[in-house]
Amino acid sequence: MAVVSRPPLALTDLDDAALQALVQELGGKPFQVRQVAHWLWQHGATVADDFKNVPKSLREALLARLPARSTAVAKVDAADDGTEKLLLRLFDGESVECVLIPDGDRTTLCISTQVGCPVRCVFCASGMFGVQRNLGAGEILEQVLHARHRLAAGRSLTNLVVMGMGEPMLNLDALLPALARIHAPDGLDMGARRITVSTSGYPRQMERFAAEPTPYGLAISLHAADDQLRRELVPTATAPVAEIVAAANRYAGQKGREVTFEVVLLEGRNDRPEDAAALVAALRGSPCTVNLIPWNPVPELAGAHDLHRPAPGRVDAFADSLRRGGLKVTVRRQRGADRSAACGQLRLRDLENG
Ligand code: SAH
Ligand code: SF4
Asked: What number of CA atoms fall less than 13 Å from residue 16's CA on the CB side?
């Protein structure tokens, strides 16, 4: 995919060097660069009044040059279990979503990396219309800033998962700087162990991700260990399963942490005994956990591809066969199920409502 670089839309698009250059160009001293960064990243400053100890003329000159952010929260969809979906409006009228999921002491945020998704998995709402465009680094970072602002007093974001709309490995140019800002102690200061990126499996891009010094978590959406079945479910990420698993194993070895293999279970398609046996054969010996996700139905896709969510008994039987084969297994509980919960669905409703 060609890399299209565009001018920054907002201060969130600037890396440390660019922010420093801008503040100094506007007459700011080095310590004022640190103050500006402090208010932007630690306090989520958006207007001149927010930059408390920065001279008024500098704050105003800065925000006259670039707005603090380029996105706005257009809609919040709250489910009874506390899950909140935020729909963000982008500068060009496109929209993207992120989801806040409180669970006991933890609060997880799920963020998007593209408008739509080019991978077009047959079961996923995000891929239904292909991809419109990549998000910029600022648009990725702003999802975290907006979501953090919504947290109740005393709560903080404990986990970040890059599992919303889009394929993260196809937008590393924006994702890596955004994650760097989210991870940096003088940025949003989130530990690498609390950040997980999920990919539908691009071994070459996984190598680039692995070359980052920060040991982010990696999840691979495998869905099937048989190449032909995987190509039916994930039609465009066509690397052989053996190469994807090898890249995941290398990542685990380099970073000293396990990877997660995700399997969205579709009744009769990839939840049969032979599918469990193929997964056991492919993953035995890998430092990993398998996360089973019973499919969250997308009505538009259920009819088109004859897809069904398996009954709980089938999911348990599948999990048991993986465990008997020596794999570690978790089953994802459904959250926010009373509202369009699955990835990409809020934007889908937004598009339908014009
Ligand atoms: N594109 C990346 C990350 C975003 S999708 C990837 O595919 O990994 C995040 C996870 O949500 C993936 O494991 C994906 O398979 C899963 N998913 C997508 N649509 C779903 C649905 N309708 N029900 C359950 N899981 C779904
Ligand atoms: Fe894209 Fe992931 Fe959805 Fe597949 S599951 S279409 S890769 S967002």
From this structure: 11
Q: Is residue 1, in this structure, part of any structural domain at all?
A: no
- Strand segments, DSSP code E, in the chain are 72-78, 84-89, 95-103, 106-110, 114-116, 131-134, 159-162, 195-199, 217-221, 259-265, 288-294, 328-331
- Nearest CA, atom 12, ligand 1: 221
Q: Which domain holds residue 328?
A: 72-352
Pocket probe mutation, ligand 2, options 113, 120, 129, 167, max atoms within 8 Å of Cβ: 167
Judgement on whether residues 23 and 152 belong to the same structural domain of the protein: no
Read off the pLDDT of residues 205-240 as tens digits, 9 standing for 90 and up: 999 999 999 999 999 999 999 999 999 999 998 999
- 140/40 same-domain check: no
Residues 146 and 43 in one domain: no
Pair (29, 142) in one structural domain: no
287-329: per-residue pLDDT in tens? 999 999 999 999 999 999 999 999 999 999 999 999 999 999 9
pTM above 0.85, yes or no: yes
- 3-state class (DSSP) for residue 288: strand
Total number of residues shown for the chain: 354
